[in-house]
Each structure stands twice: as C-alpha cells, then as structure tokens.
C-alpha cells in the first residue's frame, strides 16, 4: 500500500529496540594549527577542546533513542575511565545501560580524532584488544531472554571487538523463536550469524567485497555490480533481506522473491561519514519493526543517514531531523514551474529519464520500476496523472489517493529527482517540454500501442520498456482491499499503475 514516509517516521516513537554489540568511545580533539615543527616538516597542533561521542553499537543505540525509540544496550566495556564516560553518554542519550557488562582489566576502545576547522588530520586508536566477558551460553541466555522477548526489534552491531563470541551467537540462535520478528545484523562477519536467521543484514559494499571470494576470472566480476553483490550477500547470510550500503551512491536491497530496491543520495555537502552506518541500521530496524516493507524502510534509513553525514563528527539523527529531511525534498513542480526547473538543472552532459503513471497506491512494483528507470540516466522526472485524468482512465472510485499526496509520496523516493502533474490522458506536453533522453514504460506496451513512441523518437530520445514486476498491480491491490471490506464498492477493470 501507499506509504507516507513522514507518517512512517512518526510511528518509530515508542518502539522497543535491543542493541547488542561492540561499543567505542569516539573522541574528537579540536585543534588549531600553529605552524610547522622545527624538528620535522609536520604541523604543530594546539588542542583547544576535547569532546566525546558514543561510537559503534553505542552510537547505533543513541541514534535509535534520538528517533524516539525505547532502547536498551547489551555490551561490554572496560572498567576504566573511558568506559565510565561511555556509560554516562549512553544514559544522557536515553539508552538503558543495565545490560552493560564492565570487564575488570579490560580497556574500552577509544578512537581519538584530531581535527582543525573540521578537517580530520589523524586518528589514534587505543585499547588493548577485544573486550569479551567470560560468559557461557547459559549465562548469555539468562541475560538476553527477557530483553529479547519484550523488544520490538533487535540489532546486532559487530565491529570486531570480540563481544560476538560463539556462546553469544549460540544463545541468540536459541532465543530467536521467542524474540521479535525483526532482527537486523550490522556485522562484519555476517556468515557467522547464519544460525541466528537475521531479518536483514547491512554490510557496506567494501565489507561485502571482503567477505565474498573474487570470481574465478580474477577480475572482480560482479563485485563491482551492487545488485549482484547484494544477491550474493543474501545467499551467504541466510537473511530475508540483504542491504548493501554504497556511501555517497545510496543503498541497494534485495529480498527473496521480491524486486530489488535502490536508493540514491540526495545532493548534499558531506562533512563526516563517521557513524552513518549506525544511523542507517537503527532507522532500518525501527521501520521494519513498524511493519514497513523493504522499499519504504530503505528510503527512511537512507534519509536518516543523510541527516548525519551533513554534520561534523559522530552525530545522531533526531525525530525532528528526519521529519525535516523527509518533508523538504523540493521535488514537486507546479504545472507552471517546469521551465524554471529546467533552467536550474541545465544538463549538457546529464541524461534525463522520464516516466509517468497514476501511482494511486504506490507498491513494490512501482518502486522497483522507478529505481530501474533511474539507472538509465542521471535525472528521473515522473509525470503524475491529475485526479480527473485518473477518473477518466480508471473509472469511478479512483483515485483513492489525491494528487497532492501521490506527488508528495513519490517525491520522498530518493531515485526520483522531480515530480510534475499533467491534466491530459497523455503526457505529450511534458515530453515536448522536457525532451527526455529516455522515456520509460512497462513491457506490456509496443510501438503500436504507445502513442508517445513516435514523438519521443522524433525528439531525439528513445523508449525503454521495463519488464513488469510479476503480480504487482494497483488494481489487484484495490480488488483485494475491497474484497476484505465487503460488497457494494465500485471497482474498475483497468490495469495499473
């Protein structure tokens, strides 16, 4: 069904999240440059201020709490000053810390970054190795059983710190049937969690490439193609959903027996990528726990991650930050604003892709087609039928969703660059104004049944037909809804979108 991402973001509040993983204290030493040293050609830094942030699984927990969730963390850190500071930061963030195990003799990992005017110069890591409490499977089970049973979602955040030992993994696997349906693994070694049966895994492209063997041709093969790599991650992990984060290129998700979904980063100034993966995993887990499908959950998680990379140091995305980012896309173009949009997006070297439809109930087939359309160029413009146009095409009772809502929901998709309405039954006027390089429609069309085909060709563009996603139709969805609602509601035999 159609999902309003802003409404989905509001439902995150109050969800109970259990975070299990390796914690780090992120320390930033803000410095001023004071010339070069006499003894060597290196800069002299004068430390002006030192600030501390939650890092690793602690940052993930802090982000979930900032989004409004009720969060508890199970982790281990040293019984040292850094551990004291980290526990204090977690409590200040609103994270429950009763599950934090303090290990005598262990040292809490600290990543100390030195910056000048926000520019990172170097990072110094301290901590003498993994902090792993000596617990067997039974003791881990006793610690986790009640917490997992009462959680709406669990996130495993593994940074190679040693917490995710054999006994802990065995306990997680044994408790999986009594825990929540949603379990997200943001782990370096996703293969080790196969018996835990995660709902989703979220490695970065680089982490996935390290995990998977290079194909026999020795050229890297599909490691360079995100969707195929995500499919291999899905097979390796045993998860239902494999999400590959692509940094500035967005993210791609594949799911068993469902179309792949891709998000694209909006144009923004990146100030720091530290901890963005934690933010992404926290938001994804909460969205899935709310019952969201993969596509809206991925879009929401990507928007949350974008909020933190626009800030310096290790940051969190609050509920207000997420609402602002989802609500301020600037992509909806009024009927008379197309010329101004074209001037602002002058494209001598960028390929413009155009598609159109009713999008009355946005479903997985729509999202998959829009994502694939984006891959054919640089800018994707979506034309949307007006309410009167939908009624003429689909019959009485349509649209179910008014034009302004349909446009706002489409604009929230990161693969979409602009959304523009049209009143006619055909987008001919938009095609003549935009002169797209590629016009995308479904594979059920032919040159004879698509009136716009000859126009696009005459304007110098080409028509690309996408294979339709099987069993994904707005009309079929409406029939199912009305069948559940009872008789007496008018239906239409027209197809989708």
TrEMBL record:
Residues 354-465 form the Cytidyltransferase-like domain. PROSITE patterns: PFKB_KINASES_2. One of its GO terms (molecular function) is ATP binding. Residues 16-317 form the Carbohydrate kinase PfkB domain. One of its GO terms (cellular component) is cytosol. Its EC number is 2.7.7.70. It catalyses: D-glycero-beta-D-manno-heptose 1-phosphate + ATP + H(+) = ADP-D-glycero-beta-D-manno-heptose + diphosphate. Pathway: Bacterial outer membrane biogenesis; LPS core biosynthesis. It comes from the Bacteria. Keywords: ATP-binding, Carbohydrate metabolism, Kinase, Multifunctional enzyme, Nucleotide-binding, Nucleotidyltransferase, Transferase. This is D-glycero-beta-D-manno-heptose 1-phosphate adenylyltransferase. It comes from Streptomyces pilosus.
């Amino acid at each position: 069904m159609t999902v309003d991402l802003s409404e989905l973001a509001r439902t995150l509040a109050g969800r109970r999240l259990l975070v299990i993983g390796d914690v780090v204290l992120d320390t930033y030493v803000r410095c001023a440059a004071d010339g070069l040293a006499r003894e060597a050609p290196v800069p002299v830094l004068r430390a002006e201020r030192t600030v501390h942030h939650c890092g690793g699984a602690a940052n993930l927990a802090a982000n979930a709490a900032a989004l409004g969730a009720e969060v508890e963390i199970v982790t281990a850190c040293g019984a040292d000053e850094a551990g004291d500071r980290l526990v204090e930061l977690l409590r200040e963030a609103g994270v429950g810390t009763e599950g934090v195990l303090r290990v005598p003799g262990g040292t809490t990992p600290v990543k100390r970054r030195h910056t000048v005017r926000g520019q990172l110069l170097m990072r110094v890591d301290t901590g003498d190795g993994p902090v792993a409490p000596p617990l067997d499977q039974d003791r881990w089970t006793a610690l986790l059983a009640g917490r997992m049973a009462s959680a709406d979602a669990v996130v495993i955040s593994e940074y190679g710190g040693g917490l995710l030992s054999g006994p802990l993994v065995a306990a997680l696997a044994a408790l999986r049937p009594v825990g929540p349906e949603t379990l997200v693994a943001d782990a370096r070694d996703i293969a080790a969690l196969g018996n835990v049966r995660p709902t989703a895994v979220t490695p970065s492209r680089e982490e996935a490439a390290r995990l998977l063997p290079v194909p026999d041709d020795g050229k890297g093969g599909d490691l360079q193609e995100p969707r195929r790599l995500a499919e291999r991650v899905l097979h390796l992990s045993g998860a239902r959903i494999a999400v590959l984060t692509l940094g500035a290129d967005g993210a791609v998700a594949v799911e068993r027996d469902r179309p792949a979904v891709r998000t694209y980063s909006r144009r923004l100034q990146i100030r720091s990528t530290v901890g963005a993966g934690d933010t992404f995993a926290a938001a994804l887990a909460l969205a899935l726990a709310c019952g969201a499908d993969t596509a809206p959950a991925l879009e929401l998680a990507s928007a949350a991650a974008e909020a933190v990379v626009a800030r310096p140091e290790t940051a969190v995305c609050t509920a207000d930050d997420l609402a602002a980012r989802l609500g301020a896309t600037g992509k909806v173009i009024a009927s008379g604003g197309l010329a101004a949009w074209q001037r602002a997006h002058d494209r001598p070297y960028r390929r413009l892709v155009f598609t159109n439809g009713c999008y009355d109930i946005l479903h997985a087939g729509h999202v998959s087609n829009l994502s694939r359309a984006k891959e054919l160029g640089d800018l994707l413009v979506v034309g949307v039928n007006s309410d009167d146009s939908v009624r003429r095409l689909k019959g009485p009772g349509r649209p179910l969703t008014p034009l302004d809502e349909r446009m706002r929901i489409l604009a929230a998709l990161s693969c979409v660059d602009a959304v523009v309405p049209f009143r006619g039954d055909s987008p001919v006027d938009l095609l003549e104004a935009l002169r797209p390089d590629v016009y995308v429609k479904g594979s059920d069309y032919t040159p004879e049944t698509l009136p716009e085909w000859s126009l696009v060709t005459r304007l110098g563009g080409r028509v690309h037909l996408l294979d339709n996603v099987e069993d994904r139709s707005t009309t079929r969805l409406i029939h199912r809804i009305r069948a559940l609602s009872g008789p007496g509601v008018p239906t239409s035999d027209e197809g989708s979108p």
